[in-house]
Specification:
Blueprint lengths: L2 H26 L5 H23 L10 H24 L2 H8 L2 H12 L6 H18 L8 H23 L5 H20 L13 H24 L2 H4 L6 H13 L5 H22 L5
Helix pairs in contact: 1-9, 2-3, 2-8, 2-9, 3-7, 3-8, 4-7, 4-11, 4-12, 5-6, 5-7, 6-12
């Protein structure tokens, strides 16, 4: 079994987790703000990580090595995730996911600077196609433009930074260590930002199951993503996630009566096409 195929299996778990998290995030957004959602999500995550790591005997793998890298990784993710939770409440889910899929484009652009990976002509072409796709999805200047498109696009940059730094961490840190700092650091961030106005809302009984789902799905998604990144390059792993778009578009139509926008799919096809071209080029058999 090739590393690319193994990474694809792990990413299928991430796809399901991210999609369920979007549904749960909308359900609780009517009574909690994004910082509160992130705080409660992180609380659930801390409990799960401690229990699983204790049972697996891997809690001793948590070290203080690369704390600065963990910090920057979680700042990038915390910012991106908050903007993502906000975006799913103000624009159609398909638009949020389409713009989130530009994360691989930012990975391609930023990887040479942070990971030392080479920006090949094929990767540059993939990035160009992706940015054209962004313009088609967002259509700046057209009457349908919404500020939620901007927050979703910036969230994608935050996710790209998180992905790149996660890839860098996998060179020395274990998955248990990465997930431990993911949950604990972001729990602290959540408390600080949710409590900035000295008014932290308590979830209602109906919201508690959704928050547990968000916590479990978010942690599982990152476990799957981190595992995939540990066995395959970032520029190969992330584009596999594109299957989420048609799935979430159908969910948005059935649950929230969101229209199927042809421009969203057209832009996403260009983004996907550029990344698929890059995957094909990266994984094709090399001539002797």
């Amino acid at each position: 079994m090739s590393d690319t195929f193994k990474a694809a299996l792990w990413m299928s778990g991430a796809i399901l987790s991210f999609s369920s998290m979007a549904i749960a995030g909308r359900a609780v957004s009517f009574e909690l703000d994004t910082f509160e959602i992130m705080m409660y999500r992180s609380f659930v995550g801390v409990v799960i990580v401690l229990i699983v790591a204790s049972l697996a005997g891997t809690l001793n793998q948590v070290s203080r090595d690369k704390l600065g890298l963990h910090l920057f990784r979680n700042i990038s993710h915390f910012a991106g995730q908050n903007l993502w939770f906000y975006s799913i409440t103000v624009i159609p889910l398909a638009q949020v996911f389409a713009l989130e899929f530009t994360s691989p484009i930012w990975v391609l652009v930023l990887s040479p600077l942070i990971l030392g990976e080479r920006l090949t002509p094929m990767r540059a072409l993939a990035a160009l196609l992706g940015f054209i796709g962004i313009l088609i999805v967002a259509r700046p200047g057209v009457g349908t433009f919404h500020h939620g498109l901007v927050t979703a696009a910036i969230a994608a940059i935050g996710f790209a930074g998180s992905i790149i730094l996660t890839k860098k961490l996998t060179r020395t840190a274990t998955i248990t260590c990465i997930l431990f700092y993911l949950t604990t650091m972001q729990a602290v961030f959540g408390i600080l930002f949710a409590g900035f106005d000295l008014d932290i809302a308590l979830p209602s009984a109906s919201s508690v199951p959704w928050l547990i789902l968000i916590g479990c799905a978010g942690l599982l998604a990152h476990y799957c993503l981190t595992t995939a990144l540990s066995i395959a390059p970032a520029t190969v792993v992330v584009p596999i996630d594109f299957i989420r778009l048609p799935a979430i578009a159908i969910i948005g139509m059935l649950l929230y009566e969101e229209p199927l926008d042809i421009f969203v799919f057209l832009g996403a096809v260009l983004i996907f096409g550029g990344n698929y071209l890059n995957i094909w080029f990266e994984t094709r058999p090399q001539k002797a």
